[in-house]
Amino acid sequence: MEKKKKIGYFKRFKMAIFELENYVEFLAEKFGKSLGFCIKTVTILSLILVVTNILNIYSRFGTATKYVDYIIPNFEYVDNKMNIETEDVNNSERKMVVSTLKGLDLTYREIFQGKSYNKSDLLDYVQKNERSIIIAAIVAMWIEGFLEMLFFWLLMGLLTSFVGWVVFKLSRIRMKFSKLYMLSIYSSTLTVVLTVVYSILNTCLGIYIEVFDYLSMLISYIYITAVIYMIRSDLIKEQYELIRIVTEQKKNEEKVEENPKEEEPKSEKENDENKKDGDQSDKEKESKSPIDDEPDGSEI
User: Fold this and answer.
1) Which residue, 37, 83, 91, 185, is most buried by CB atoms nearer than 10 A?
2) Distance CA 43, CA 41 (A)
3) What is the pLDDT of residues 186-237, one digit of tens each?
């Protein structure tokens, strides 16, 4: 048996984005290969996203303490109540923090246990434990980015599978859902990569495209449709090739059947001719043989 060619990660990544005609090679693999490719890519992309965000924060604020001061509004926790100065909520980051803090009332009671706490206390704590806080923040950001991106990719693959199923129905081709979902994961690779790039540009440069989400999803749908039609054309070519081989075999069989019938009369004619030649040769021999003279009685 021939061994299956192993496709490396970078080769697989290139095929998923640039070589749609080679998607047929993925069909010979198990679903776990596509899932492993998805997890590896998400791991790399989430790390790139985290590193980019950390570099962006340090380029803008310099230290973690200044960053916390920028995103946290003035607050004071007294008598088991959180008081936030609404006038100090003047940017989008602080608005997000305020919406998060409002849902953590029970957590405050467990942490502070009746003690008073304010923003200056928080900044002092961050300054004293900056290194450990940065490491914890990086790990938390990576886990969050990894899970969020993985869920997005798998969901995108599911939506792309639905589009692929419709195209398969129209093309009158049958395929297992696991194989279709596997192709959909590869078809969504460019969408995920572009989403990460757009997220970095939005965070670092403030670039915003209103219809980006719809455009990125459309790319996956175009990819899966193109792949299905390529597979369909390959199947048609294979069918034509099989038909050609079968017709040639039939022609060869017919020739083999006709040849014995043509040889039989020829052999009979040759036998008749050989017999005629033999009879003629016998007659010639008889005519050429000497005649014995009978005695006439003149001799004594």
Assistant:
1) 185
2) 5
3) 999 999 999 999 999 998 888 888 889 899 999 999 999 999 998 888 778 8
Identify which of 253, 271, 227 has the alpha carbon closest to the alpha carbon of residue 19.
227
Handedness of CA 270, 272, 274, 277 (dihedral sign): negative
* Nearest Cα residue to 200 out of 64, 77, 82, 54: 54
For the chain, helix, strand, coil in percent to 5 are: 80, 5, 20
Sign of the dihedral defined by the CA atoms of residues 235, 237, 239, 245, in that order: negative
Which residue is associated with the tokens 């078809």?
187
Q: Tell me the one-letter amino acid at 285.
A: K
Digit-coded pLDDT (tens) for 78-99:
777 777 777 777 777 788 877 7
* C-alpha dist (Å) from residue 35 to 41, 150, 249: 10, 10, 44
Other CB atoms within a 10 A radius of the CB of residue 107 amount to 10
- State how far the Cα of 23 lies from the Cα of 33, in Å rounded to an integer: 13
Of 151, 209, 160, nearest in space to 181 by CA: 160
Strand partners, 83: 76
Structure tokens at 223: 């990819």
